[in-house]
Design goal:
Blueprint (H helix, E strand, L loop, with lengths): L13 H13 L1 H6 L3 H28 L5
């Protein structure tokens, strides 16, 4: 399957790399879908970006006075 992505090379600290490898070996979803480290990083990035966008929307609503918190 061809992926329509841009290539990005990143360096990870050893503890982060070790944790990613541990997740790939132990997480049922990663094992079921046969995730590689790149697949896991893409998945985590999508989740993180989605959460960031939700947090940003809430902060903007607070600034506009639409919600209190």
């Amino acid at each position: 399957m061809r992926r329509y992505t841009e290539s990005n090379n990143i360096r990870l600290e050893k503890p982060v790399n070790d944790r990613l490898l541990e997740i790939i070996k132990t997480d049922p979803q990663c094992r079921e879908k046969n995730f590689s480290k790149s697949d896991l990083i893409r998945s985590l990035m999508r989740m993180g970006l989605k959460q960031y966008e939700l947090n940003l929307q809430n902060r903007l609503k607070k600034q506009r006075g639409e919600i209190y918190g």
